[in-house]
Specification:
This is Phosphopantothenoylcysteine decarboxylase. By secondary structure, the protein is α/β, with parallel strands linked by helices. The chain has one domain (2-92, 112-208): Rossmann fold (3-Layer(aba) Sandwich), CATH 3.40.50. The protein has five helices and 14 strands. The chain has helices at residues 25-36, 65-75, 118-124, 142-152, 193-208; strands at 2-5, 10-13, 16-18, 41-45, 57-61, 81-84, 91-93, 112-114, 131-138, 157-162, 174-175, 177-181, 184-187, 191-192. It binds cytidine-5'-triphosphate (CTP) and calcium ion. Cytidine-5'-triphosphate is lined by residues 4, 65, 84, 86, 88, 90, 115, 117-119, 134-137, 149, 153.
């Protein structure tokens, strides 16, 4: 299986970047769980402080969305299952300054351009029988937005994280998710992230063996 995890960092200049609060915990927990089930896991991860000590998990460290896309594109044709757990930055600076930007004046505007949507691009070239899973972090119109992503990115399943739930999302060790499929919705209780990972892997496993 192939999995993306963590944030991406988009360079502004040699010392600064645009990033987000993703820790990679959910993705790494899913990788660990798949490895325990006997899968060989290709884990493409943005910058995190996490480590996996399991020979069945091959970690490729990347920094930016473009680098993550290249690594995923190369590994996708060999994958039976692809899980997009990374919090990919949606935009990157249009120009990366080659020298540190010096402080001048009171305002600074950085022009941003859209990053590649890794899940959507891979969704266009999805192989027959390949099972793909995305994540959605929403604050409003949760299930409508998640369903839209499910179809737009050609996914089999989307794991919806609601930031409205206490104890869920970034910076927590717990998470409360709802898994949406074209014909099914499964809601789970607030749990430790490694238990949530187990629920996600179990449901993928069930669907693959149905
Ligand atoms: N994703 C991706 N590449 C991107 C953006 C998102 O692969 N450039 C993947 C994420 O890993 C996740 C899914 O797409 O599995 C949904 O990500 P999310 O940020 O919720 O959706 P977006 O399509 O970026 O929409 P928005 O941020 O506006 O809600
Ligand atoms: Ca996004």
């Amino acid at each position: 299986m192939l999995l993306t995890a963590g944030p991406t960092y988009e360079a502004i200049d040699p010392v600064r970047f645009i990033g987000n609060h993703s820790t990679g915990k959910m993705g790494f927990a899913i990788a660990e769980r798949f490895a325990q089930c006997g899968a060989t896991v290709q884990l493409v991860s943005g910058p995190t402080c996490l480590d996996i000590d399991n020979p069945a998990v091959i970690v490729t460290a990347v920094t930016s969305a473009d680098q993550m896309y290249e690594a995923v594109k190369e590994r996708a044709p060999a994958a039976d299952i692809i899980v997009y757990a990374a919090a990919v930055a949606d935009y990157k600076p249009k120009v990366v300054a080659d020298k540190k930007i010096k402080k001048e004046g009171n305002d600074l505007t950085i022009e941003l351009v859209k990053n590649v949507d890794i899940a959507a691009e891979l969704g266009k070239v999805k192989l027959p029988g390949q099972f793909s899973v995305g994540f959605a972090l929403e604050t409003h119109n949760e299930s409508t937005n998640a369903r839209e992503k499910l179809s737009k990115k050609n996914l089999n399943m989307i794991v919806l994280n609601s930031l409205n739930d206490k104890g869920a999302g970034f910076k927590h060790d717990t998470n409360k998710v709802t898994i949406i499929e074209p014909d099914a919705v499964t809601a789970f209780e607030l749990k430790q992230k490694n238990e949530v990972a187990q629920d996600i892997v179990n449901l993928i496993w069930e669907r693959l063996h149905a």
